[in-house]
Amino acid sequence: MTDLQDTDPGEASARAVTLIESLPWLKRFREQIVVVKYGGNAMVSEELQDAFAADIAYLRYVGVKPVVVHGGGPQISSMLDRLEIPSEFKGGYRVTSTEAISVVRMVLTGQINPQLVSKINAHGPVATGLSGEDAGLFGGRRRGVVIEGVEHDLGRVGDVVEVDPQPVLDQLAAGRIPVVSSIAPDLDHPGHSLNVNADAAASALAVALGAAKLVVLTDVPGLYADWPNRDSLVSHLTSTDLRAMMPRLESGMIPKMSACLEAVEGGVETAAIIDGRVPHSVLVEIFTSKGIGTEVVLG
């Protein structure tokens, strides 16, 4: 217990004010499902990993039901390089060979997932690891990509076309935090796995769960209406506004904003992209009136 004689009264009062400011948001999100897509810089910095894990544990202990979906682009690239397996991108997607999909599975389900579960569980035994391949959680279909009017094959890359949320709901009912790796079984080729975009997988899962909010961590402060003009950061926009902006967006931002659009059009109340490079950005987004990053609502 803190010795009150060592606590500055002004500092203690300021802390209390901060806690009270979160009250409306605690009431709004208590017992609600919040899906958080974890990736980018937040995933490769040890300090940011620890801050993220603490945020997710905090949500659980104040009565929110967090669900984490993660990818692992930087770690997959690193492992492919180490194993001298060629890695190529087309239209923002990683071309995934039969050889590469084994590495993708190993990194996502065997390395990143248990590491994140362990970090969350440093705050109490609440997190559990799941793969999109577990218990029919995700079903995927292969996809290509069209570049300048020409269709290109991406190999073992797919979209999540089916979601059975029951495995996640079972974990939530048991008071656990599901941590889901973004890989899916290929519905058209039994026994095969697909590398699926984690932003899209998180969005599809949020819709299937009837989540109150989708939060996507990224490596920029939010959506810029006129990139690279840094004064054009958009803090709030409707799905109609976003759909009109989509053709003008930078290629790296398209999957993230598409995920937000699909989430709110699928019934999720709000979706936001936030800067994962800012420690505790998840808590700032959920528990303050200003939030952080760009929020999308239906309209």
From TrEMBL:
Supply the EC number(s).
Answer: 2.7.2.8
Mind listing the UniProt keywords for this protein, alphabetically?
Amino-acid biosynthesis, Arginine biosynthesis, ATP-binding, Cytoplasm, Kinase, Nucleotide-binding, Transferase
The protein's annotated catalytic reaction(s) are: N-acetyl-L-glutamate + ATP = N-acetyl-L-glutamyl 5-phosphate + ADP
Q: Name one GO molecular function term.
A: acetylglutamate kinase activity
| Chain positions of site Transition state stabilizer | K37, K256
Q: In which pathway does it act?
A: Amino-acid biosynthesis; L-arginine biosynthesis; N(2)-acetyl-L-ornithine from L-glutamate: step 2/4
**Domain Aspartate/glutamate/uridylate kinase spans what residues?**
33-275
InterPro entries membership: AceGlu_kinase-like_sf (IPR036393), AcgluKinase_fam (IPR004662), ArgB (IPR037528), Asp/Glu/Uridylate_kinase (IPR001048), Glu/AcGlu_kinase (IPR001057), NAGK-C (IPR041727)
Q: What does this protein do?
A: Catalyzes the ATP-dependent phosphorylation of N-acetyl-L-glutamate.
Q: Which family does it belong to?
A: Belongs to the acetylglutamate kinase family. ArgB subfamily.
Q: What is this protein called?
A: Acetylglutamate kinase
Record gene name = argB
